[in-house]
Structures are given as structure tokens and as C-alpha cells.
Amino acid sequence: MLSDNPEVDLFADIDKTVLASATDTAELMLTPYYFIGLEDVDWNVRLHRPDGSVTPVTVTPSVTPYVYHATVSGFPYAGPYALEVTLRTLPTTTNDPGESRPGTAPPNTRPVPLLERHLRIPLLRLGTDWYCRQDGRQDDCDSDGVSGESPTADGDGDGVPDAWDGDSDNDEIPDGNGPV
Asked: What CATH code is assigned to 8-125?
């Protein structure tokens, strides 16, 4: 399987990365390329939740050629989420890099090798119903190595309480690595 091929790419667009409530949804559009858009690919899209659970997301072809669509839902807790997207080509994957040539010219489609691409899209669900993982760490909801952070204070004003914010002072240094 090729993974460092410069002719392949995976583009993603999501209509929102900040969700307001547990019932909110996000619309995801995916476009795989190998010289041009690809048809008949394999998708593995999963939503990682703050409680550590992972749920699959169904991807379907759009009415637009080479574009795929998914509605992402299921945000029961406030906090950080992540969409993990994996694209794999199949032996049946095709592309069509343009108009056909008249006469006896050979077809201008390109054979598509077995390829794989990954991307991760961070999401945030706002609210007050934050989930605190207890992975054996006492009072460390964001697993940054700092215990006793406030569940109500928001030191950097980003809407994420310090107890769940891996960079609660917004200095771009993870709290567990910053000055004490």
C-alpha cells in the first residue's frame, strides 16, 4: 500500500467545528484525489468522544462526482471530540481525468494503486455537562498531568473550563509541559 504518493490527496470540509448542544450535527464532505477525484473507495470514519468511546460515522457518495458526505451526530458530553478519517483505495477504485479521446486513442484513465490517507478533525461541544475520565489519575480530567484544575474557571476565555483544557492559559504550551 502506498502512503507517500504525492499525486494522492484527501480534502475534508466540515460545516462547523464547535457544536452548541448534544443534539447538534455537523456536515462532513470528503473528496479523495489521485490526479483527479476517485470513485469506489473505502471509508473508515470514527468519532472519538470525551468519555473514550468511539462511534462509526457512515459516509455516502454525494450527487456531486467524487464527493462523499456524512452527517456527524452523537455529542452527549461537552468537551473535545475528534473525527478520525481513513481513506483506502480498492482494486475497483477508478478515476476519470478528462474527456475521452476520439478515434482509436487509448483511454485516458489512470490506474489507481492501492493508497491510504488519514486525517483528524478536532471538534468541540460546548455546554456544562463535561465528562471527567478517571484513568487512574486523581482529578485530572484532561489527562495533561496537572491535578486540581478548576472545573468552573476558564483561564484563557476559550469556553473550555481549565480542568478540561490541555492549554488553560493559551500560551500554546500544554499545561503538563509549562512552567509551574
From this structure: 2.60.40.1930
